[in-house]
Sequence to fold (231 residues):
Amino acid sequence: MAAPVRFSPFSFASPATPAGKTWLLTFTDLVCLLLTFFVMLYAMSEPDPARYKALAAGAPGAKLDQQGDARPEAAFSAASLDRGKAIELGYLGRVFESQMAANPELADVTIRRVEGTLILSLPSDLLFAPGDATLSEKGRAALFTMGGVAANIGNAVDVVGHADASPAGPNWASNWELSLARARTVADALHEAGYLRDITVRGHGDGQSGGAVSEAARRVDLVVREHGGAP
Fold:
């Protein structure tokens, strides 16, 4: 009696031949579909608040509110700047604006873009007593905050003192000397805050104010340039 003939789904192709390995394609497709399914499930799941807050708190410059959530201004922080490079002025302006919004001592500082520069104007009345070139406590606090940003940029910086027609006082021969001394004081404060590059210091007398007496004319400008400063 002849032995029964048994058929196998793999009897028509040897495993050693390409035709015998076609099942690998189906198996690979199945594994890929399963991986995609689990990734989709993970993406749809709710994030763990504790893990999210821990991650946000560890991000450079991140700030948390009273509930422990990351604050939007964390994206524009001094910690995110590259100390060795000149920062794009538009982005740098937003960093300074975030600092000004978060620090009351900078409420009177104004910022503007002029011909490839970013100019931050600090009223002299914020920084100095009348006729004096020594920083006041408020002035020191304001420059400490602004210096925290300046210390993390590679842009060239000028400090320019301005004066109006008010008498310079007995310690100065002219308003120009007073404005120059104040500019030097501000430059020294920026160096102390960590800005390691050379700072160009200039002073203007009351000629640019047209003889007027105004708080806007009595100021010290921080002029940040697009190019890098000399180390």
